[in-house]
Design a protein that fits this description.
single chain, Uridine Diphospho-n-acetylenolpyruvylglucosamine Reductase, domain 2, 5-stranded antiparallel sheet, about 35% helix, 14 strands, Enolase-like, domain 1
Length: about 300
């Protein structure tokens, strides 16, 4: 029996533990230890992977007590959500509920209350799962990732943050500091829909939609899906089809067909690729219809 490949509730390796109090100290630790160091905030993914020996690291850098990383506020730039902000705090924030309902809806779908009490928004993004629920919501919200490294700060659109399964643009010595999200305009309707094997499981397919309405037509449309490609993706051909049209059954079916054509799902333990393609059609129709109704639109 390969005990190190099982979840034995024991971390079967030695490591040094660091708990810096400032961002600069965290970056310095990463610079010194390089690829032998791993950041931890909530640990809901990392500790499980360490127990299964999927991740082996010599230095754990716990960043949960760095005050700058738990910022949750609004200013002239938009909404600042620190990378170490717990998902439960986002879920319970009236600021987020009232102004970023799509992110609020997506975060509420992640795991259980116990998980959300520990897990962080930065962890959900930096884990870079193609199925990350917060990622699709942020993709259609024009969100940006603010990053700090030894060479200074930089900002990256969330759409460019993911480069592959488990991979982001973060360098070995960089920290995701916060997510910056602009406010949602008053005439926008949003929806988040997810299908999983159970209510607590990762998404088999998830989708986030933002619609803006002008008269009886769609002024703008944004569609993002997860668990259907190596990274969460925008489906721009479907967006283009919907823009400028009335939200008819023909529009819904056309968008659903394009989504099914443009995604690249795989077969894994959660579902075969063919199932994901079919489910993506249904979720596209449902998500577009829900967002449209939320801004007072009718579908025939």
């Amino acid at each position: 029996m390969q005990i190190n490949k099982l979840n034995t509730h024991i971390v079967p390796q030695k490591f040094e533990y660091h708990a810096p109090k400032t961002l600069e100290a965290a970056v310095e630790l990463l610079s010194v230890h390089g690829g032998e160091a791993t950041l931890m905030a909530g640990g809901t993914d990392l500790l499980v992977k360490m127990k299964q020996r999927l991740v082996e690291t010599r230095h754990i850098i716990n960043i949960k007590n760095i005050e700058e990383l738990t910022r949750l506020e609004r200013d002239v730039e938009g909404f600042h959500i620190g990378a170490a902000t717990r998902l439960r705090n986002i879920e319970r924030s009236e600021l987020i509920r009232a102004n970023l309902p799509l992110l609020h809806e997506a975060v509420r779908s992640i795991g259980s209350v116990q998980i959300r009490n520990m897990a962080t928004i930065g962890g959900n993004l930096c884990n870079a799962s193609p199925a990350a629920d917060s990622a699709v919501a942020l993709l259609v919200s024009d969100a940006e990732a603010r990053i700090l490294g030894p060479d200074g700060a930089r900002t990256v659109p969330i759409e460019e943050f993911f480069i592959g399964p488990g991979q982001t643009v973060l360098g070995e010595d960089e920290v995701l500091v916060e997510v910056l999200t602009p406010p949602l305009s008053g005439n926008a309707g949003t929806s988040f829909v997810k299908v999983g094997r159970t209510s607590l499981d990762l998404a088999t397919v998830n989708i986030a939609v933002v619609l803006r309405k002008k008269g009886e037509t769609v002024a703008d449309c944004r569609i993002a899906l997860g668990a259907v490609a190596p990274t969460p993706i925008r489906v721009r051909r479907a967006e283009e089809l919907v823009r400028g049209r009335e939200m008819t059954r023909e529009t819904l079916e056309g968008a659903a067909d394009i989504v099914s054509e443009d995604i690249r799902p795989i077969t894994d333990v959660r579902a075969p690729a063919e199932y994901r393609k079919e489910v993506s059609k249904t979720l596209t129709r449902d998500a577009l219809s829900i967002a449209w109704r939320r801004i007072g639109g009718d579908t025939d």
